[in-house]
Structures are given as C-alpha cells and as structure tokens.
TrEMBL record:
Pfam families: Polyketide_cyc. Residues 10-124 form the Coenzyme Q-binding protein COQ10 START domain. It comes from Coleofasciculus chthonoplastes PCC 7420. SUPFAM superfamilies: Bet v1-like. It comes from the Bacteria. This is Streptomyces cyclase/dehydrase superfamily.
C-alpha cells in the first residue's frame, strides 16, 4: 500500500473552503489543463453515495474511473473510494480543519498499483510525482478562489 499526503493552509474559513468544494463545476475547476482527463459526471455533491466519473487518456487509450463517496462529515471530511478504474486500490480523504480563522486542507491518499509490490516499488515514485503536480495545482486554485471569496464576504 502506498500513501500520498498534501496539506495547505488556505486563507479562508472552513465554510468557504467546504462550499467551494460543493460547486457543481468543482471537478473541472480542479483539473489541471495539462492533464488528459474528461469529467463525465458528478452526482450527489459531497455526501455518502455521491459519484464522480472520469475518462482518463493514456495516449489514445481511454480508461474509465468511477469514485464513490463513502464518508461525509460536513465542514470536516469527505472520502471517496475507487469503484472502477486503473488503480488496484484507491481511497482519498479530503480533510478541512479550522486553524486560526483559516482552513488546513489536507488530502490523504492510500493507493495500490495493479501488479502488486514490485510494480509499486518501480512506479510508486512516478505516481507520487504525478499526485504532487495535481494536488499542488488543486491547492493553489483553492487558495486563490477561496481567498477571493473570503475577501468578498
């Protein structure tokens, strides 16, 4: 099992950061423009049972990725788990913690690669590098958007 973690202090209250993640277009907004990903659907918001479906492109080959939300405590945490997709295992926890009037946004991912421990040893570093690019982008967008929204209120 491999692990990835990214944590950023967002300059906005928890309610603002949580509500930003509830936007209907959040998946499009948080997908980096350089990633070959298409958002197919998002149903159910952040609550338990919510579904997100993506089409990932590895060169000309499209792969379907479906994630279902398995945990939700409003203004605190929501967790999604891969139901169908390219990983052997994937659980992603999104945590929102108040910190001095701001929000500590932490993404924690536990994942496994198809092919087991040998493939994880060979490619885990590469997946972590991809996740770091993705979540650096996501946290930067969240910081910019939520700081702006916080200034408006």
């Amino acid at each position: 099992m491999l692990h990835y973690r990214k944590s950023t202090l967002i300059d906005a209250p928890v309610e603002v950061v949580w509500n930003f993640h509830e936007r209907q277009d959040i998946l499009e907004r948080l997908t980096p423009p350089w990633q070959p990903v298409q958002v197919v659907r998002r149903e159910g918001g952040l609550g338990v049972g919510a579904i997100s479906e993506f089409r990932l492109f590895f060169g000309p080959i499209p792969l379907r990725w479906v994630a279902i939300h398995i945990e939700c405590e409003p203004y605190s945490i929501f967790t999604d788990k891969q139901k169908e997709g390219p990983m052997a295992y994937w659980v992603h926890r999104h945590q929102f913690s108040p910190e001095a009037g701001k929000t500590r946004l932490t993404d924690r991912i536990e994942y496994g690669l198809p092919g087991g421990w040998l493939v994880e040893r060979l490619l885990g570093w590469w997946v972590d590098a991809q996740l770091e690019q993705l979540f650096s982008y996501r946290h930067q967008v969240t910081q910019i958007e939520c700081s702006r929204i916080g200034e408006e209120t």
